[in-house]
Amino acid sequence: MIVDRHSAHRSKTVRAWLADHKDEIELRFLPSHSPEPNPDELVNSDLKRSLPHTQRARTQSELAVETRRFFHCRQRQPHVITGYFKAPHVRYILDERTQCASDQYDQPDGSRCQAHLTSQRGAS
């Protein structure tokens, strides 16, 4: 799973859970302070554009209702979801050949992911 470097993704609880499930899931971290390669930012932008502009939510519960409405609508629009991953700066997610381009997938311990190491060996 590709995630940003939010503290929640690096917490002790998450690291413990990942250790227990290392054969099932592995995290790849995006570079710090780089929202461009993060498709979540495209979803957030879409959500903000979709919220009503004439009558903004005045409470947290009103905002939650509007947010749920947005995501329920998007569930019925797979072409929009797929479109999030077609933008040039997030295309790497769909392109298996460039799974780990340059330093974008450095691990929290500073190591590189296996696919990047393999591609570097093949290029030498």
Which SSEs are present, and which pair or pack?
Layout: E1 2-3, H1 12-20, E2 28-29, H2 39-50, H3 60-75, H4 78-84, H5 114-123
Parallel strand pairs: 1-2
- Biggest sheet, spatial arrangement of strands: 1-2
Q: Which word captures the global form?
A: globular
SS field, number of helical segments: 5
**In whole angstroms, how far apart are the ends?**
28 Å
What is the string of SSEs from the N terminus onward?
Answer: EHEHHHH
User: Using only CA atoms, what is the Rg?
Assistant: 18 Å
Contiguous runs where pLDDT drops below 50 for at least 5 residues: 96-124
Query: Helicity range of the residues?
Result: 40-55%
Global mean pLDDT: 74
Organism: Streptomyces umbrinus
Protein name: Tc1-like transposase DDE domain-containing protein
InterPro entries: RNaseH_sf, Tc1-like_DDE_dom
